[in-house]
Design goal:
The structure holds 2 protein chains of 2 kinds. By secondary structure, chain A is α/β, with parallel strands linked by helices. Chain A is built from 15 helices and 26 strands. In chain A, the strands form 5 sheets. Chain A has a 9-stranded mixed sheet, sandwiched between helices. In chain A, α1 crosses α6, α7 (about 215-225) packs across α9 and α8 crosses α9. The radius of gyration of chain A is 23 Å and the shape is globular. By secondary structure, chain B is mostly helical. Chain B has a single domain (about 5-80), classed as Non-ribosomal Peptide Synthetase Peptidyl Carrier Protein, Chain A (Orthogonal Bundle), CATH 1.10.1200. Chain B has 4 helices and no strands. Chain B has helices spanning about 5-15, 40-55, 60-65, 70-80. The chains are: A alpha/beta, B mainly alpha. The interface of A and B includes residues 217 and 492 of A.
Chain lengths: ~500, ~80
């Protein structure tokens, strides 16, 4: 039976727990209790008139209610649409209209029409009748998920039950999560993959601890998980902290790591973006195996290193149900036995066709190769992309194009040394430079950009030329050389022109 | 004599800033964002400074953390709880 149908078909075995740890508060439930509570929420949703295929939005930070709503939606074959409050500036009412939601639950203190407070699902009465049975077919779509757009609102797609099953089963095959494990999740539950670890706990019988971003470090130490679900920005920041701690206290890397992660780590998961090889090596030497993988929102998990097959520098072997096809340009294309989707639900003109190709193939835009043993190596993006520490991917080219459209900017490269704020390295069109005009250009560009895409400041560079090595032979800016030459100005908070 | 919480907080912050800045050179009123502190580094900094000053992080909520935008505000918040802990 499929993993999703095992999840919705029967209560879990007792003995595994769901724990929520926030700053100042930790609560824990046996999964059988969570199952029973999710049944109450399912009954409540049916009472609101929610029917199979209806979309239920959740705009909230990680919480028990988040999990209950998602499980309830699965149990009545509704579609969960998760919105991270840090990413979506739109009001609940706007999200309801934009994404066709039957109802939206939020912790953002908004109540209007179909927008309800998420606490409404916490203290519901027990069910007085059985729920109708729910069976998900591979082509059904339990989740509406969002992915970074090149401009404007996020793109969305409906993820298939078949792709979710395929990924959950493949991951379970290689990591064998089970009794004794506690998977630590601190990224937003609005990301479908973070909810996978809750589903996995129900089906494969392990603990799962969900934290908030802010409570992650305090929660890790208190929880002593066996697995941490992170992204490269998290591990790179943590590595810097461990190195500083070791230098300050004289602790060994492994002793410093135990202080942060606890003493039970089986492995660290990293994905969503390439991790720095030095960071991967650091954790390996500190006694914490870390496994890099590869996948997009549009493909789900494609490849993953794991204890049984790990080749440093690669993103692992390709998982069952996925096939990697490298095209003549060296771009990775993915064919899935159960495609995640065949088109976007919401996207700009031509974006679906550019990503989803006939035959269930996804054109990733990433460059890579497979070695003779089937390990996949990713070399970078065909288009340049910046990945923030929260995992959000920022496609910089449209932002750079927008800046270059301003008459005072001849050329520019957008970078993000802090993994949070974007900085533009600008080659001005006129000399001497009028800083007020550059600031005005930033403000003008920012006005049309999403929150995460906005430029915090610009630093002034020499004119990019082939002679000075800042332009390539095709007259394209040489990103790495430019970033290296102006790194001091970029990271110095006293330097630059702010928007 | 300098406030021990401020001294500890300055040292902890200097460790996580992207540029080399002597602890005493950090402006108490400078926005942590403008100093180049990422959101995760801010969490690490606050966790670390709570550890070193023995002020329990449990005194604060996620909302409290978001409201601490300068080093001065961090020192003030920690000092408030240090007096009662």
């Amino acid at each position: 039976m499929s993993v999703i149908n095992q999840l919705v078909g029967a209560p879990p075995r007792p003995g595994s727990r769901l724990t929520f740890t926030r700053l100042g508060r930790t609560e824990s439930w046996d999964l059988t209790e969570v199952w029973e509570l999710s049944g109450r929420v399912a009954g409540y949703l049916l009472g609101l008139g929610i029917r199979p295929g209806d979309r239920i939005g959740v705009l909230a930070a990680n919480s028990l209610e988040w999990v209950l709503l998602d499980l309830a939606a699965l149990r009545i074959k509704a579609v969960t649409a998760g919105f991270d409050p840090g990413k979506f500036d739109a009001s609940g009412t706007e999200l309801v209209a934009r994404y066709g939601l039957a109802v939206l639950f939020t912790d953002q203190h908004q109540t209007a029409g179909r927008v309800r407070p998420i606490v409404a699902v916490r203290d519901l009465p027990p069910l007085d009748a059985d729920l109708p049975s729910a069976v998900w077919e591979p082509g059904d779509t339990p989740a509406l998920k969002f992915t970074s757009g090149s401009s404007g609102p996020a793109k969305s797609l409906l993820a298939s039950a078949g792709s979710m099953d395929s990924s959950l089963a493949a991951v379970q095959d290689i990591f064998a999560h089970g009794p004794g494990d506690d998977l630590f999740v601190f990224l937003p539950l609005s990301l479908l993959q973070q909810r996978y670890w809750v589903y996995s706990a129900f089906v494969f019988g392990h603990d799962v601890t969900v934290s908030t971003y802010e409570a992650a470090f305090a929660g890790l130490r208190a929880t002593r998980p066996t697995v941490v679900m992170g992204v490269p920005g998290f591990y790179e920041t943590t590595r810097a902290h461990l190195e500083a701690t070791a230098a300050r206290t004289g602790a060994s890397p492994s002793e410093a790591a135990v202080e942060v992660f606890g003493d039970r780590i089986r492995y660290l998961w990293t994905g969503s973006a390439p991790a720095a090889p030095a960071t991967l090596r650091y954790f390996g030497r500190a006694g914490l195996p870390i496994f890099e993988g590869y996948g997009l929102n549009e493909t789900c998990i494609v490849a993953k290193n794991h204890p049984g097959a790990h080749r440093p520098g690669s993103v692992g072997r390709v998982l069952p149900g996925k096939e990697v096809l490298i095209d003549l340009d060296g771009v990775i294309n993915i064919r899935s036995e159960f495609p995640v989707a065949t088109r976007y639900e919401h996207a700009g003109p031509g974006e679906s066709e550019a990503m989803f190709r006939p035959g269930g193939i996804v054109h990733t835009g990433d460059l890579g190769h497979l070695d003779e043993d089937g390990y996949l190596f990713v070399h970078g993006r065909a288009d340049d992309v910046i990945v923030l520490e929260n995992g959000k991917k920022i496609i910089v080219r449209p932002i750079e194009e927008r800046l270059k459209a301003c008459p005072v900017i001849e050329d520019c490269v957008v970078t993000n040394p802090s993994q949070r704020q974007l900085v533009a390295i600008v080659s001005p069109a006129t000399h001497p430079v009028d800083a007020r005009l550059i600031a005005a250009a930033l403000r003008q560009a920012n006005a049309a950009l999403d929150h995460d895409e906005q430029i915090a400041k610009a630093v002034l560079a020499d004119r990019f030329t082939v002679d000075n090595g800042l332009l390539g032979s095709q007259f394209k800016p040489r990103r790495k050389q430019i970033e290296a030459r102006y790194r001091r100005l970029v990271i110095d908070p006293e330097e630059g022109i702010r928007a | 004599m300098p406030d021990p919480i401020e001294t500890t907080a300055r040292a902890a912050l200097a460790e996580v800033l992207p540029q080399d800045l002597p602890p005493q050179a950090i402006d108490l009123d400078a926005e942590l964002d403008h100093l180049g502190l990422t959101s995760l580094n801010k969490v690490l900094f606050l966790t670390s400074v709570c550890d070193r000053t023995q002020v329990g992080l449990h005194h604060f909520t996620e909302h409290d953390l978001a409201a601490m935008r300068t080093l001065g505000q961090v020192v003030e918040a920690l000092s408030r709880h240090a007096e009662v802990s």
